[in-house]
Amino acid sequence: MKKxxxxxxxxxxxxxxxxxxxxxxxxxxxxxxxxNWPRSLWLPILHGIVLQxxxxxxxxxxxxxxxxxGSPLWIYTKKQAELLQLxxxxxxxxxxxxxxxxxxxxxIYEMKQxxxxxxxxxxxxxxxxxxTVAPICDQVGQVYKSAAEIPDIxxxxxxxxxxxxxxxxxxxxxxxxxxxxFDMILFSYHGIPVSTIExxxxxxxxxxxxTQKVMERIGDHPYTHSYQSKFGPGQWLTPMTxxxxxxxxxxxxxxxxxxxxxxxxxxLETIEEINEENRTYFMENGGEVFEYIQPFNExxxxxxxxxxxxxxx
Amino acid sequence: MKKxxxxxxxxxxxxxxxxxxxxxxxxxxxxxxxxNWPRSLWLPILHGIVLQxxxxxxxxxxxxxxxxxGSPLWIYTKKQAELLQLxxxxxxxxxxxxxxxxxxxxxIYEMKQxxxxxxxxxxxxxxxxxxTVAPICDQVGQVYKSAAEIPDIxxxxxxxxxxxxxxxxxxxxxxxxxxxxFDMILFSYHGIPVSTIExxxxxxxxxxxxTQKVMERIGDHPYTHSYQSKFGPGQWLTPMTxxxxxxxxxxxxxxxxxxxxxxxxxxLETIEEINEENRTYFMENGGEVFEYIQPFNExxxxxxxxxxxxxxx
Lengths: 313, 313
Hints:
The structure is a homodimer. By secondary structure, chain A is α/β, with parallel strands linked by helices. Chain A has 11 helices and 8 strands.
């Protein structure tokens, strides 16, 4: 038996150009799991409006965060796969992206070529959402729908209450609290539409449990919980991170420690949206200290957690 | 977390009548994983010929093996689920049939209602074949294709080389060898078309490994390996159990011990095909002793093995 471990994250355009971003967004935003509107309504909007306007704006943002080796999300996901491979030498560790390259299907084929007889799929989203984890399951299902040979398959749906994950978040926060004092800890998670929650998505509940369990490990300190990255019309989860941060200074909350437990690798939403855009909103409204805790990125402590999830699930 | 364990076997008609058998066979034989021919060719044959002739014949056979509570396969699968539930009280153990009732999809919904947050699917086929295990994966995939919430999912593809399974087979054979002497041990597995093997099905290889590893645990004794239950035209795996048994007496093999390691519960193929039909072929051709080792059925040693598979996979 040769175990294959596939780490999966959302994806990234191949370069920070409007053309590459358009290609990436077209794939991402065509997924029914992501945008659940009737196709006849959504596809004209997507192709006629969204993909005409947004790629340029997004490419501009991607350009700001792009590094020599590529997009941060891609770099750190790759790095985590490499670190995990070192810790688990008898397995075949690979990474893939739900949208863009390397794709889930091509990576699974490649793992099979490499001798894999058992597949563990680990979506790199601590909290489950239909909009992120389910598309991965769909694609894994697609691979095996027409395959004659199916290996043992495991798909992890979430790790929002994994002991190691919670403890690592808590330890990181505690380190910051020892060095400096803050009026508030803000837990910011990627938002999703309220309609998705109403269809049965456990995402909001899992985010709340993560925040609560991390705070249990920290003890008595003011904290709050919000959602970022709203896209399109319709109601999304509230309170919104942006509004929360804008309002803080007027509530005499001027020193804030921000953490984004839903992201395990830096990306547009953390570097650009939180640490630039939202920092600016806060400071412009009278904030004094805005300290942002980076995702785990290439932390080897996180590699250990990944290994523990794989070994205990 | 509440783990759900779903044992799955092939299925059985709801009663031993031609109508019930027709309904069951129509479902079973319409599956592309089972009969891989072009639909335009196969469906007219299925509905025009097979389902006109076979249900009557099959119902007759089912009548012979039917018990008060139902079909043996159904009875023993249910019993194993109950025994496993007793051993694993903190889980939700259920059983389902790929074809017929209770169905995989309805059972998974019911497990979700019962609070399941983690699903382990254990097909009750020790050896993987696209014709048996893959339809289960297809149906599990179907459940989650349109579901908002997806739990942790594990699907076991086979347990043909599981230590406990091999040892239990070997122990049972050894017990028979101590009591009586045989000229030959015959391992008979359900056959599949050669074309399925050519498409990449590892079934034949896994059957061979099971036989070999059981024999390693038994030591020096004549044995052979064959395939039963051929259906329809086309080349199937050989040698065929029927031909093997017919030829034995002329090769001076008159006392035979038969085991069917691919079946974990008694069914038409074991009770009627092996222990009646094939026994008759052997005896009519000059055989003297035909001893058949029943499948595990309601053995609690097998329950332990199921638990070990679940806990170690």
